[in-house]
Specification:
The complex is a heterotetramer. By secondary structure, chain A is an all-alpha fold. Chain A has ten helices and no strands. Chain D is globular. Classes of the chains: A mainly alpha, B alpha+beta, C alpha/beta, D alpha+beta. Chains B and C meet through strand 1, strand 2, strand 3, helix 3 and helix 4 of B and helix 12, helix 15, strand 9, strand 10 and helix 18 of C.
Chain lengths: ~300, ~190, ~850, ~290
């Protein structure tokens, strides 16, 4: 309680219960969850990249991408399990299969993806069972894109205004960001001559991500405010600026300079990380302030009562 | 969960009507067999709330000599089974871990509590009553017979039973102690 | 009521659902106000002015229930010529002795009848002797003897002359009219801070809902009683309800909401200094040196109280059994005698002065729960020994190491010689016994589990203590030990040595010559052939059955629910229910039918046990010289009164006047607008240096404070502050203040405040709320500070005790303190340690508290 | 699967695979008779052995519980607001003003015992990946403590902010509507304790009728502010199993004015996720076309 401030219900703009949030702030921990989102996105897109590299004969790119897919999945799983209140019960994630739960669906994506990408990476590194390794890699590539984007459903399928109301754009933000990260990581670690697809993937991902993120702000009104304001706003701006810089660098010097490519790649990766933190924090902010819950709902009610007789 | 793999809820989902796994299929064994703990009570004892004077009826559930639940008795024409927050906290009142269950003794000028055997404590108290009673005994005051002691006083009774108040007043009166009071004066 | 008796409040909500108007009069806006139809904020301590205003309204608008008033009250009685009212004496009644600060009530009596019976002649002689000798009647108010009227009214010497036209200027009705004439709505505004419009709303609702077809009830708690005029506040309510015809009728009455599980029981079977079981007075050394003297005032008077000798002898028989014989006055001499005020506050003073050295605390926590906590602790620090019996380690057991006086240095642990025994007590589920709830109903509890460790019930403790004391005295030939040695103290015990509570209840119920349990107090005899531990409880063990243990479900009975528990007297649920019928015995109305005369059967019948002689016809006129119940007329519903009437005017029995008058609390920021007399002239001052009074109208102490309970806690907190589930709901002491006061004193919501009186200062968190209203009294505002009093230094949540602020100035009838006081409030926490003493001392000096006579508020003329 | 995700659904238990199930049970909390005694909070904790939830004087009127959460399954809100100025009858009295300093109409003090809504479409249940949250045969929504792994998804899913993780335990907790007691035909502890019948327990259909009648009754008495909250089976969560009669706007009590279960948009969400996944595939393919470098 703020000293000296009598918590009478404020009359301005909207009413609330002592300014308290209506929604519960998500209990998901940082950095576990934003990191998981990043890792999932990066790993999922890397699997695609790896399979492309394998198909087109880019062994360096393939190896890095396979490692990124497997490593990202493994690290992501660790982050996810670490976030659980009862980590020893992580297997309960596979107890039921619920299409209504992106986390359930995601578990059935993450589990095979982890296994397949791990197998593919192991095969790639050890040279053992190459055919099975390729098969696994193909499987991982199939599960990769859903892995990179389902996390948007994870956020969107909540009552958190900044997430839910952005459910049309978030998959593209996350998908684009994942592609950008996967491409960026490869740019960092793969020689220039094999990194062409990575650069293109990063660049294309960056474009998708920026367009999608920008359209949240443009189209979602008040609930998009947290993406512009405060800590998440800063994070989003930093991420966008970094993405823009990396993209410019990629276009200008990505093909020629290993250093520029590596720097741009690292910047992409970092920007992707920051984007997830930005989105995460935007959701937190929108859950904390009852304004984002009450005002849109009030507007909705007003619109409804204008268009018809009151329902409630 | 040492259950048959056939009881994997995913399979139950596929087998039964709960395809989305949101109800029947996801029930655990515990949920299937859940019971209120009161059904296991060895006895249910009729009681009355110890806080205010409305006199709400309580039902006390006992299992293995321990109280497992206290709740209102709907049969009461006074309370109809309802309890206020204090009455609802009765179980916590009687099972409180901070309840003092051993005699504590503070000797004159002492700085700490000490242990004391209950029987010894009773003897010591009886000795002191006898001594103080005699020390302050008064046959008369201003020439009028009083037959009393002003050396011993007592405060309390409103939270106690009628039978207890009766014994207290009876014993004190026979002792000649008159400064016997309770919350009704406060 | 919703605050402190939420479950009882369900019936108020039921009534509201059925269209009743709920009016809540309280200084603060509480949970009750929140659901009431009307909340009337009132200045704490001004209840008599408010109720008096209603009485005046009812009288001046002729809204009283005339048939009821004429037949059932003493409105028609003619009062002695010598009576002078507060109207005549500017706030005093006739008979005031300024030196002794008490009244001689002789001029308040009913006019003596011209044709006196021999008995009445005798009484007149006696009164004349008393007048000249200065004894007798005057003593009826000392030693809180008024309280012995808990079951029966004070005795009047004669029924008196009546003018049923109510026109005689000296009849009670006319006196009442004159007395209350100045209690106008405008005066109510000036005294109470209640706007005339609000007052009118209440008055209209009350009148509209009273009469033949409707009844209204008054419910109160210690907001009415904790005043130096407490008893008279209840009297004002009684007058109002009698005028409106709301007594003895369903839906009517004055409902005391008592605050402890068996506080009613501990008054009926008292652990109180001034009475014995069944409201028999403790003998007074000046008046009662024999059985005859003891029962003289009441014996043979009209009504059931006239059989007092039977009740008294039966009590002595249950105390001393075979040792009590007709030859030895049934051991009357074994009873200790009073010589004055031996109430708890006086005892504390005696403890401080070294006159009382042993102390039992049994489920009480005076260090937090009693007024002027410092004096309580100083008293306990000066004992030889202290026995504390409780569930938790309460402040009264630990004051010697962590009390506020240890902090200030007023007490030093090593210097405190008090030997302390803390004995753990059994909880309500660990023993069997009966509680008497607030409507006089006994309910038996069975035992559920064994008490833990050393915990024992009080029943076992006192029985065991008695056994051990008697062992020590066995063989003594000292006369002082006879009462203990002859005591009937042989209760059956079980294999664990625990006393059977039902055997004690049976002793309370009483037994006849054949040793069988009695069924009704009408069976009690004055010859020693019956024994009864509490005559009003006679019948609770009728037919050798524990009637208090009856639990016939509510749905198997009508709403009177006569077969759930057992209510004294005689399992009667509404007292004086003869008044629910008109004088001719027919119900006042079909709607309010309750008990009525069935001419065919020749009996009173109805839904409750009739509170009347069962076959006494409505037209019965007692024979000349009849005594006791025989003297009850067919139209005298108030069977415990010696004149059978409800008293609008109390000719005897009260220490501070036959009618209520508003006096300001001993500490007040305003001058009494009604009379020149500021305070109750007969209030009991409590002279002690540790009990200084803030001078009236002091600018140093400009605000009013009052203390109260919260739903989430219980009294001194021992049963609630120790429980997580309750403590989390109200985790800290706080004070509630109005926004205006907050602005005036710079107090911040959520911040700290220090509240200062001449006794001490405490700190509390601040809640600024519109629920506390600034009251407008004429041109000025009065600010009130609300203080929940549940906290102390032990338990899960700790804080200063509000009762440390409360001064001890007592009602002259019942010796209960006034919880309203004045104070200053300032932002921030209080000084710590010895600095606190200097801080308070500074206030005392600035306020001009007289160091020689600190209990004089300076308001007496 | 019609209506499984949102909209009117008359038999949530049946929809969740319970055949031959008892009627849907729920709460009707009539705040117009609530006296804020908090018996519900304590009775709930005693029965369900919920730990204490912190000792903090909040300054939010008499509400020191603050909100529903993992260790508070019933929460009594206290709202202090200036009372609406009521037209008073002119009594011909001299105008001296009301007792208040400002001569206003005083204060109103609203109390409301909040609880899990046991939504017809319960987002917490829908998003729970382990099946720990499930729909019981009584149509209520319950967490199975033996299953929950504390993933925390239910927490942001709830549009009312009810369910939460108990940090020291790691699992999610909320009102079970005393599932165990219901199995034996007993009332939930809070409803059993409630002194004034503010908390009414019963069959949801019957409670809805009772609630509608109560609102009408209050309106007839001039209490125009009375309105039902959560009783409409057509609302954004398909109606609540625990609904309320309120005397002010929902948000004044800390309730969302127009909650919608997130699964209403589940189709759209998955569609967009699918679209984005496809976009990645496309983007991946495109990345490997063109120049080989």
């Amino acid at each position: 309680m703020a000293r000296g401030e009598r918590p009478m219900v404020p009359d301005v703009e909207f009413e609330s219960y002592y300014g308290r949030p209506i929604l519960k702030e998500p209990t998901w921990k940082t950095p576990d969850v934003p990191l998981y989102l990043f890792l999932g996105g990066m790993a999922g897109c890397s699997a695609v990249l790896a399979e492309g590299a394998a198909l087109t004969g880019r062994p360096e790119l393939e190896r890095v991408a396979r490692m990124a897919a497997a490593g990202g999945a493994a690290a992501g799983t660790v982050a996810l399990v670490h976030d659980l209140g009862r980590p020893e019960r992580f297997l309960n994630m596979l107890r039921v299969i619920k299409p209504t739960s992106p986390l359930s669906v995601g578990s059935y994506i993450l589990a095979p993806f982890s296994a397949l990408s791990g197998a593919a990476a192991a095969s790639n590194v050890t040279g053992l069972l190459p055919r099975l390794g390729r098969l696994a890699g193909l499987g991982a590539a199939a599960f990769g894109p859903p892995l990179a984007t389902y996390t948007a459903a994870l956020f969107a399928n909540t009552a958190v205004p900044a997430w839910h109301e952005a459910h049309r754009e978030l998959p593209f933000v996350f998908g684009g960001s994942g592609a950008q990260a996967a491409g960026g990581l490869a740019m960092l670690l793969v020689p220039l001559d094999q990194a062409g697809p990575a650069r293109r993937m990063a660049l294309a991902g960056a474009v998708v991500e920026i367009v999608a993120a920008e359209s949240i702000v443009l189209r979602r009104g008040l609930v998009a405010e947290p993406y512009r304001k405060g800590l998440p706003g800063r994070l989003m701006r930093i991420a966008r600026a970094a993405t823009a810089v990396a993209s410019a660098a990629t276009v200008v010097g990505g093909r020629r300079s290993r250093i520029v490519a590596a720097a741009a790649g690292a910047t992409y990766v970092a920007a992707s990380v920051v984007t997830r933190f930005g989105v995460f924090e935007a959701g937190m902010d929108s859950a904390r302030d009852p304004k984002y819950t009450v005002v849109p709902q009030r507007e909705r009610l007003a619109a409804r009562s204008e268009s018809s007789t009151p329902q409630r | 969960m040492a259950l048959s793999p056939l009881e994997w809820p995913v399979l139950r989902q596929l087998r039964g009507p709960d395809r989305l796994g949101r109800g029947k299929a996801s029930m655990s064994h515990r949920s299937e067999t859940l019971e209120p703990r009161t059904v296991e009570a060895d006895k249910v004892v009729d009681s009355v709330c110890p806080f205010c004077a409305v006199g709400c009826a309580q039902r006390v559930f006992v299992k293995d000599g321990k109280i497992t639940q206290i709740e209102g008795n709907p049969a009461s024409p006074v309370s109809r089974g309802r309890l206020c927050p204090k009455g609802s906290a009765s179980k916590q009142l009687v099972t409180s871990p901070t309840r003092v269950t051993k005699v504590r003794y503070r000797r004159p000028h002492g700085t700490e509590w000490e242990d004391l055997d209950l029987d010894t404590a009773m003897d010591m108290i009886a000795d002191r009553v006898v001594k103080t009673r005699k020390q302050f005994w008064e046959w008369e005051a201003d020439g009028k017979r009083t037959r009393r002691t002003l050396g011993i006083a007592s405060l309390g009774g409103a939270t106690l039973d009628n039978e207890e108040n009766y014994l207290m007043k009876k014993l004190y009166t026979a002792m000649g102690a008159i400064q016997i009071e309770n919350q009704a004066r406060i | 009521m919703a605050e402190a008796h939420p479950v009882g409040f369900q019936w108020v909500m039921e009534a509201k659902r059925r269209g009743a108007t709920i009016i809540h009069v309280d200084p603060r806006f509480t949970r009750t106000s929140a659901v009431a139809d009307v909340h009337v904020p009132i200045r704490a301590g001004s209840d008599i002015a408010f109720l008096g205003g209603l009485v005046n309204h009812v009288l001046t608008t002729e809204s009283y229930f005339r048939d009821y008033v004429v037949a059932y009250t003493n409105a028609a009685n003619i009062v002695d010529e010598g009576f002078e009212d507060t109207e005549d004496l500017d706030g005093l009644f006739s008979g005031f002795d300024a030196e002794q600060a008490h009244y001689d009530p002789v001029s308040w009596r009913y006019q003596a009848p011209d044709d006196r019976s021999p008995d009445e002649e005798k009484r007149l002689q006696q009164i004349r002797e008393d007048e000249s000798g200065g004894g007798g009647q005057k003593e009826s108010h000392v030693a809180a003897q008024s309280e012995s009227h808990g079951s029966g009214g004070a005795a009047v010497p004669w029924k008196g002359k009546r003018d049923e036209t109510l026109q005689d200027p000296r009849c009670v009705f006319q006196i009442l009219k004159r007395h209350f004439a100045r209690y106008t709505p405008e005066m109510v505004q000036e005294v109470c801070g209640i706007a005339p419009a609000d007052f009118a709303e209440v008055a209209d609702a009350l009148v509209r809902n009273s009469g033949r077809e409707r009844t209204s009830a008054l419910a109160y708690a210690v907001g009415w009683t904790h005043h130096s005029t407490g008893a008279q506040t209840i009297r004002t309510g009684s007058i109002l309800q009698l005028l409106l015809g709301n007594i003895g009728r369903p839906g009517g009455g004055i409902i005391a909401l008592r605050g402890h599980a068996s506080i009613q029981g501990s008054t009926d079977i008292p652990t109180l200094f001034n009475i014995l079981p069944g409201y028999l007075p403790m003998p007074h050394a000046n008046q009662h040196q024999s059985l005859d003297e003891w029962v003289r005032d009441d014996e043979g008077k009209a009504g059931f109280w006239g059989n007092i000798r039977s009740y008294a002898v039966s009590l002595l028989k249950s105390y001393w059994g075979d040792a009590a014989t007709a030859d030895n006055d049934f051991c009357f001499d074994y009873l200790p005698r009073l010589t004055g005020d031996h109430s708890t506050y006086n005892t504390v003073k005696s403890q401080i002065e070294g006159g009382c050295k042993g102390y039992f605390l049994v489920g009480e926590n005076p260090a937090v729960g009693s007024a002027n906590g410092k004096m309580q602790r100083l008293g306990m620090a000066n004992l030889d020994w202290l026995v504390v019996r409780d569930l938790q380690m309460i402040e009264s057991a630990t004051f010697w190491k962590d009390g506020p006086e240890i902090e200030t240095g007023e007490l030093v642990t090593e210097d405190i010689g008090t030997e302390i025994f803390f004995l753990p007590a059994a909880s309500h589920v660990e023993k069997a016994g009966s509680f008497t709830q607030t409507q006089r109903m006994l309910q038996w509890r069975d035992k559920a589990v064994e008490p833990p460790g050393d915990a024992r019930s009080e029943l076992d403790f006192y029985f065991d203590l008695g056994v051990r004391i008697r062992e020590r005295l066995a063989g003594s030939t000292d006369e002082m030990d006879r009462p203990l040695l002859d005591l009937a103290w042989d209760y059956p015990t079980d294999e664990k040595g625990e006393v059977d509570g039902q055997a004690v209840l049976r002793e309370i119920n009483g037994t006849g010559p054949d040793g069988a349990a009695l069924s009704a107090y009408t069976e009690l005899k004055p010859d020693g052939s019956t024994a009864c531990g509490c005559w009003i409880y006679c019948g609770v063990y009728a037919d050798e059955v524990n009637q208090a243990r009856r639990r016939k479900p509510a749905w198997e009975q009508d709403e009177v629910a006569a077969e759930w528990g057992w209510a004294w007297p005689a399992n009667r649920r509404i007292l004086y229910n003869r008044a629910s019928a008109a004088p001719d015995g027919s119900p006042w109305s079909e709607r309010k039918k309750y008990v009525w005369w069935d001419a065919e059967k020749g009996r009173w019948v109805g839904r409750d046990v009739p509170d009347f002689v069962p076959d006494r016809a409505p037209d019965h006129v007692p024979e000349e010289g009849a005594t006791g119940p025989d003297a009850i007329g067919g139209q005298d519903p108030f069977v415990m009164q010696t004149d059978g009437k409800g008293w609008l005017f109390a000719p005897v029995g009260l220490a501070d006047g036959p009618m209520p008058s508003h006096y300001e609390p001993p500490e007040s920021p305003v001058r009494n607008p009604l009379y020149g007399q500021q305070n109750n002239p007969t209030r009991r001052k409590y002279a002690h240096p540790a009990n200084p009074i803030n001078p009236s109208w002091s600018e140093v102490f400009p605000y009013v404070f009052t203390s109260y309970r919260l739903t989430e806690h219980h009294t001194a907190g021992g049963m609630s502050r120790t429980l997580p589930y309750l403590t989390e709901l109200q985790p800290e002491p706080f004070c509630e203040i109005s926004p205006r006061l907050a602005a005036e004193r710079g107090l911040e919501h959520g911040g700290w405040a220090t509240i200062v009186t001449a006794r001490t200062a405490i700190e509390a968190r601040v809640l600024v709320t519109d629920r506390v209203r600034s009251l407008r009294l004429g041109d000025t505002f009065v600010e009130q500070i609300g203080l929940p009093y549940h906290w102390g230094r032990n338990g899960i949540s700790q804080g200063d005790s509000a009762n440390d602020l409360v001064n001890i100035t007592m009602d002259p009838n019942v010796y209960i303190q006034d919880k309203v006081g004045t104070c200053d409030i300032r932002p921030g926490r209080r000084p710590r340690g010895p600095a606190l003493l200097a801080f308070v001392d500074g206030y005392r000096r600035r306020a001009g508290v007289d160091p020689d006579d600190p209990t004089d508020g300076g308001a007496d003329r | 699967m019609t209506n499984s995700l949102w909209g009117r659904l008359d038999d949530p238990a049946g929809n969740a695979g319970h055949t031959d199930h008892p009627p849907r049970m729920g709460f009707f909390t009539d705040t117009s008779v609530c006296i804020g005694c908090k018996a519900c909070e304590v009775a709930c904790k005693e029965w369900n052995e919920v730990p204490e939830d912190g000792y903090l004087l909040t300054g939010m009127s008499y509400d020191n519980t603050q909100q529903l959460g993992a260790s508070t399954w019933r929460h009594v809100a206290f709202v202090e607001k200036p009372a609406e100025t009521v037209e008073t009858v002119d009594l011909g009295m001299p105008e001296v003003g009301l007792p208040g300093a400002s001569g206003d109409a005083g204060v109103k003090w609203l109390m409301s015992s909040d609880v899990c809504k046991h939504c017809t479409h319960a987002a917490c249940l829908d998003v729970c990946p382990t099946g720990a949250l499930f729909r019981t045969e009584f149509g209520t929504v319950v967490v199975q403590p033996d299953v929950c792994n504390g993933c925390g998804y239910c927490v942001p899913a709830c549009p009312y902010g009810v369910i939460d993780i108990r940090p020291e335990d790691g699992r999610a907790f909320k009102c079970t509507l005393c599932y165990d007691r219901l199995k034996e035909g007993q009332k939930p502890a809070c409803a059993q304790a409630c002194p004034t019948e503010s908390i009414q327990f019963g069959e949801v259909d019957e409670l809805r009728e009772r609630a509608a009648a109560r609102v009408e009754e209050l309106h007839a008495r001039g209490v125009d502010v009375a309105r039902l909250y959560g009783a409409d089976p057509e609302d954004g969560v398909g109606g609540d199993g625990a609904f309320f009669l309120l005397l002010d706007e929902p948000e004044v009590y800390g309730l969302p004015p127009d909650p919608v279960v997130t699964t209403r948009d589940l189709g759209s969400i998955w569609k967009h996720v699918g679209g984005a996944a496809a976009a990645i595939v496309g983007l991946g393919v495109a990345s490997f076309m063109g120049r080989r470098r």
